[in-house]
Amino acid sequence: MSKEKEDEEKPEEEQVPKSRIRHLLMPVIIILMTFGNVVVSTAETQFAYYAVQKEYNISSVVSAARQSLCEANKSSPLFKQQQKIQSITANWNAYCHLAQSVPVLLMSLMVGSWSDVIGRRAALIIPTFGLIFKSAFFAIGIKLEWNIYTFVIAFFVDGLCGMWISLLASAYSFTADLTNYGKSRMFGVVFVDMTLGVGIALGVFTSGYIIKFLGFLYGSVLMVGVGVLLCFLISLLPESKRSTNKITSTTQFEYLKNAVSFYFKKSPTRYKYILLAIVFSFQTLPNIGRINVQSLYVMNSPFCWNSVRIGLFGGVRSVAQTIVGVSLAWPLYKCMSKDAMVIIGSLSAIGYYVLTALATNDIMIFMTPVVGLLLNFPVIVIRSEMSQITPRERQGALYGSIAAIDSGCSLIGSVLSNLLYGGTVSVYKGFSWLAFGSCHIVGLLFFG
Fold this sequence. Notes:
Layout: H1 3-9, H2 25-55, H3 77-118, H4 120-144, H5 152-160, H6 163-177, H7 183-236, H8 252-264, H9 270-299, H10 307-327, H11 329-335, H12 338-358, H13 362-371, H14 377-388, H15 395-424, H16 431-447
Helix pairs in contact: 2-3, 2-4, 2-6, 2-7, 3-4, 3-5, 3-6, 3-8, 3-15, 4-5, 4-6, 4-7, 6-7, 6-15, 7-10, 7-14, 8-15, 9-14, 9-15, 9-16, 10-13, 12-13, 12-14, 12-16
């Protein structure tokens, strides 16, 4: 796209609100909320795996060295039990994320538009409550030894609160409020992504040790405490959106319409929004889908990882991809085109998934973050591009619509990845990873 055409599509610039010291609380809030969600999501799969083993009374065959049911001999009865546990846990994951992703699809649209009216700070409270409820529900359920399918309730309520997807909408909208269009906006998006990376890395690095030393019960209680701390910090955060209007029941349809109008209302930028949304979807779908099967994949033979090793790898991957890789986006943005960044990032992602599918030892798994170092480039560029062609007063609605795409990808990716992995693990456990890589290929075809 020519520079002249980009300039024509940019809305008229408005004066940004003056930054204050307490605005720096926002990165802390992002880190803590991301940390809490990562720890909970990492623990939930491992808890289900443990609970299913206990239900089938086969915990006595858990590997003493690796602390997971693992048998490499495919003719062994233990191997068949191992694959059965993998399949049951994957299906449980699918049901839970289906219950979570359906309500979040609507809530992500609404929360983004609400934040344009009630402000970004109030919108942050909603996903924080979801984190507190889910963590508390897990703590009570683990203590009382409820059936694992009762935990679907916690996922549903978390979805009603918008979970981490509403956090993304609020965080990017907050950044858009405080930055100008152009390179400043791109830097803002990169900064938010790096902050998310810090939270993810902190969560995955520590999750294994939290599970090991505190267990699932007290680990859940700790996350309730994180949620309470978040509420306190949000109360101290200055508002970046000056509107003081109130939400009324008669305007709910308008909020929903604002979020989807980018793609349906006739305008010079309508088709660009649609194309960017399609490419964004194919880039995001595998990134969300992999989260739900990564733990199961490395708990299976020949890796047989325990919670600490899973956390160590997750931390290495997060630092490489969401901190180091994302930090490279800003300098590369100055010396190459946006199209080139999307292509390079997609190729990096494809390499990451193919190598994961072909991995046969720990070294190959730990090499995947290096190959996939730049896989977040396409999402960063697309978010920045969509924000730059959107008026300031509609940034919340835009990021609400992007959050809805995220939640749609979460619904499809979470459910399909678990069903696909559960259905193919006994045939070829790397099949789902090859499917993830193919999504990036399709995204490149649309982008080209």
